[in-house]
Amino acid sequence: MKSAILKTASSYLLPILLLFSIFILLRGHYHPGGGFVGGLIAAIAFVLHSFTHGSEATLKLLHTHPSSFIPIGLGVAALSMFVPMLGGQPVMTSLWFNEPFPVIGLIGSALFFDLGVYLVVIGAVLTILFTIAQYSE
Amino acid sequence: MTLDSYIDYVILPILAIALLLVFVRLFKGPTIVDRVIALDLLITIGISVITAYSISRGKSTFIDVAMILALIAFLSTIAFSYYIEKRGRK
Fold first, then answer.
1. How many structural domains are present in chain B?
2. Under DSSP, is residue B60 helix (H, G, I), strand (E, B) or coil?
């Protein structure tokens, strides 16, 4: 789309929306939010960029095809699931660090599971939308 | 009149009437552009309903819902205008 206002606004909105999606991802354990909603917001940020700059520019910004996010996310989620088995505990036991980290707060293995969901959602949504965009042209 | 009862008895009924009027435009709308603008306005009124509710109940987590809804409304309006422009060019 040839609109200077939209183009300028979307290039500023992309980093802000990604930051907001990470905020939603980190908040998701005790409050509304989590990996799924955060991933959707990050996907919306890239879709907004692709509407104004074209989908080729967004693919160049991502460096890889978005479908490669899906195996990475599934790998992170599966790893966080099976790590408690090393300590002799059942699968998907929530392990927590004893000391809270600065800014982020207390983190546990649930955060890494959510991070996997986040990556899978970004990959799936962007793959679907870019496929539809390619066929409709 | 306290702020809570003002929101419950004045602001929320006005927003409800506005929603009904926008729905009339959404069904009647002669062209597709009218319907797109009506949808955008519908989500904007929904955002104000959420904001008024979260002020009167004192729950700040609903503000984030309103923020995401505003984002989706913005994106959907851009998507509609993108495809209307694309269809007009053919």
1. 1
2. coil
